[in-house]
Structures are given as structure tokens and as C-alpha cells.
Design a protein that fits this description.
This protein is mostly helical. The chain has a single domain, classed as Serine Threonine Protein Phosphatase 5, Tetratricopeptide repeat (Alpha Horseshoe), CATH 1.25.40.10. It contains six helices and no strands. The longest helix is centred in the middle third of the chain and has 17 residues.
């Protein structure tokens, strides 16, 4: 379990839109206690930075979130918005629909 102070720092850094610091804290939290919520929130922080490398990192974290909790829909949303921001809207839609159908059929 992560220390309550670390959790507070996550909330503050993300809430104050210090996304680089939030990414650092989410990474620390993941190292101590991997969680789909931390992957999802780190994905959102990467997305908020907006540059190509950060958007690609957002997709990786969204994939890790999906893998950790495939029935949690926000992971798919994180992946879709990052793909759309990279300009691959059609691929974003295909990936999300395919992944959702795969889960529903298993």
C-alpha cells in the first residue's frame, strides 16, 4: 500500500495541473502498488501534456490499464482520446470497438 502522503501528492500535483510531477508520482505509486487506476491517471497526465511522445505514453499506459482491468471502460476512453489526438480517429474507433467486442465475447 502506498503511503497516504504519496496519495495526497498525487492528488495535488494532478489537481494543480503539474502533469510532469503527477507522472513522477504515479510512476512511484505504480512501482510500489501497480493499479489500473494509477495507469489510467498517468495516461491522463501524459495526454494533458499533448506532445507526440506524451500521447504515445498515454496509449501505453491506457493499454496497461486495460490489461489490468479489462472491464473498466475508462481505460478504453484513455486510449481512444490519445489515438484521436494523434490524428488517427478511425483507428481509435476500430481499436476501441474491437477491444470491447473481444471482452464481451470472452
Amino acid at each position: 500500500m502506498i503511503h497516504p502522503w504519496t496519495h495526497l501528492q498525487l492528488i495535488i500535483s494532478h489537481g494543480l495541473q503539474d502533469y510532469c510531477k503527477a507522472i513522477e508520482w504515479y510512476t512511484t505509486a505504480i512501482e510500489k502498488e501497480p493499479s489500473f487506476l494509477y495507469y489510467s491517471n498517468r495516461s491522463a497526465a501524459h495526454y494533458s501534456l499533448g506532445d507526440k511522445e506524451s500521447l504515445e505514453s498515454a496509449i501505453i499506459d491506457a493499454d496497461l490499464c486495460i490489461h489490468a482491468s479489462p472491464l473498466w471502460p475508462k481505460g478504453y476512453n484513455r486510449k481512444g482520446v490519445a489515438l484521436q489526438a494523434l490524428g488517427v480517429s478511425f483507428l481509435a474507433l476500430q481499436v476501441i470497438v474491437f477491444e470491447i467486442l473481444t471482452i464481451m465475447c470472452t
